[in-house]
## 1
Amino acid sequence: MTEVNIIAVGKIKEQYLKDACAEYRKRLGAFCRINICEVSEYRIPDKPAGKEITLALENEGKQLLSLIKPRSYTFSLCIEGNQMNSENLALKLSEAALNGIPAINFIIGSSHGLSEGVKEQSDYKLSMSQMTFPHQLARVMLLEQIYRAYSIINNKKYHK
């Protein structure tokens, strides 16, 4: 069974989002081992300078990269990444399993994004949308899409 790791900066604060994450984690248990690893968000002033943001991203990036397991396939969620539909995500996950990759990582940065180092270390830069969503909602949306992808792989009705 493939291990899927969501490695994210910060914690989910809102209970309704925690509940949604818990529901999709429960559903995903039939298809994969799902883990959520959270790293601390680096504290910066309310109106940070560019250097302060860069320093924060680099510090967060070191924490994120330390959680990536060897021989895994890593998606970095970033605005400049490529968008894909659910079927193509299912294909990527299926190909990883067929190639014997034991773990798949999805990295979610802070509201300021990800460091260049994290993006360079990733195998695929993924953009969820050109639209802007609340940062904490990204984890719920990602879990739902992973569940949808595994439903497609396993010919379950959920996808429709």
## 2
Amino acid sequence: MPTLFRFLTIIAVLVGLAYGGMYALVLFVKPNKGEMTERIPVEKLNPQN
């Protein structure tokens, strides 16, 4: 039984670290805001087949 508790404790710690890392990314990483434009050639819009 002690090995089961040790296994569950290790899994719980790893899951906690993963959630903590995701939470830190949400708080500290800011996305770049801005407009993006890309020109599309007419040949790709109306292929001549």
## 3
Amino acid sequence: MSEDRELERIKERKLREMLRKAEEKARGVVIDKPIPVDEEQFEEIIRKHELVFADFWAAWCGPCRMIAPIIEELAREYAGKVVFVKVDVDRNRRLAMKFGIMSIPTLILFKNGKPVDMVIGVYPKPALEQIINQYL
């Protein structure tokens, strides 16, 4: 009996989520890929969106290239819930310094404009999903 209620709650939540995504898509606001940003764009995005997952990276960084496909997958899967941005630390040194980026890749999750979680290095997709899901 309780399993039936739990299934109904899950169905309702999924339906609400699907409707929200459909509305956002109709308005053209669903972002389903990582957005390369500079310092000004970064500040605007973290103010505008509830959840932002920032990938601080550099073109010469091997581990950054390894995690890039995972970030792209997550951006597609969490479209409408989380905005993913890529911050090139070579082009945005002040932004990297502001957040104390000493090693890359560094991934920072922002909620309501504030950093709430950070990981340094390459992590498997399930570990990153677990971090994101904590704040949804």
